[in-house]
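Session log. Operator J.P. requested a structure for one protein chain; no other inputs attached. Running the standard single-chain path with token output.
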Amino acid sequence: MSHSFDDENLTATTGLVPIMALAQNAGLPDLADDRLTVTTTGADKGANPAAKLATLVGGMAAGADSIDDMNILRHGGMKHLFDRVYAPSTLGSFLRSFAFGHVRQLDAISSRFLTNLNEHTPLLPASQENAQSSTVFVDVDDTVIDVHSASKQGAGFGYQGSRGLNALLATASTSSSNQLIVGQRLRKGSTSSARGADKFVSDAVATTKRISPGAAVLIRADSAYYSSTVTKAAHDAGANVSITVRMDKRVKAAIGTISDDAWTGIEYPDAIYDEDTGAWVSKAEVAEVPFTAFTSKKKALQATGRLVVRRIPELNETKRAAGQDALFDLFRYHAFFTTVDRNRFDAVAADHMHRKHAIIEQINAELKNGALAHMPSGVFNANAAWLAVAAITHNLLRAAAGLIGGRMTKVRAQTLRTRIIGVPARVAHRARKLILHLPRAWPWATEFSRLWQSALGPPRTVSA
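Structure written below.
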């Protein structure tokens, strides 16, 4: 056997053709030309921002997690499929020329591009069957992206104890859709989780409402974001909140007012359904009490709502096995504050809905398995721009999955790369047409064809 890298008509990432066609149809190049104004002095680092942004998006969609990995777009027959694919060194200079204002321009492009994608396929489908299916959930959380060099600008030791940069993310989803990134912000590694979260929440809700106007929006977050400013920002933007509270004296006092007969068993791991009573027999129970949050603040910052509490028995299995049962019951309490009306979500439904906030960890893991495996530059604003491009790419792949439909609607980015993007092909020219010869018996040929038809096929005609 032998090998030779000499075929100029082979491609390894043919699925980028419909993916990038979708980006072009949704106006990504036009948005970049209109809104991205990177300085073009010296070596014209900021020239042709639309083509450079498209190159970055295409590389991330193909799996690039560093600037050098952008070379994946410059092989074989790719020059027949795409023009103006820039070298990694050019893209690195482009990113390093970003200032904070340019990163904010990318944020504006990201939100408007998301709105344009929604015109090609419904990104946040909702139904009116019940309160949960008609609600758009916006989850807010931050994650630390580890770096391994003290020379990385802005790197510091955060709450995880490791050196890194802090990425604040907001995702939007419905009960029948996957998660979109509706907000992203890179911060110093040593920053607190809630720093700047109020303005961030306002922007995330505004983006979500542009995609799904008229939908009820609910902000879900952990106790790091339990503050009067975040709650007020969500209220002013027209959203409700469901935020884990810290166990301070007022919260403990409110829990103490709940009577013993107010607790309801919930469907929980190891729960048993009692057909006679129609209730779940579970170790976990939930109850609620009216609550006014932030009473130490001025009147305008106080919020009236409900304190929903879940309690779990504190059991020492070792002592129980030895016959040493406790003299009285002890419980661990988990409480969150919500402004959602009880007619929409009772205590059990509100607890079930709030626990699903953890789904944002799937996005953190997915990004770290791709573009955010590490921060590629030593310049902070370059990394902030990299995060914004990663969000654009994520939403583009989510829209592509929606166009494919079926079982592919909710697949992760890595699955899309394996089945759709990483399809090898041979490029041929015949009768002034460019033809792609794809592998025979490709397992996901039908799904690939559906995406191709949606992004590159002729417009569908609708008879009157």
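Operator note: The chain has a mean pLDDT of 89.
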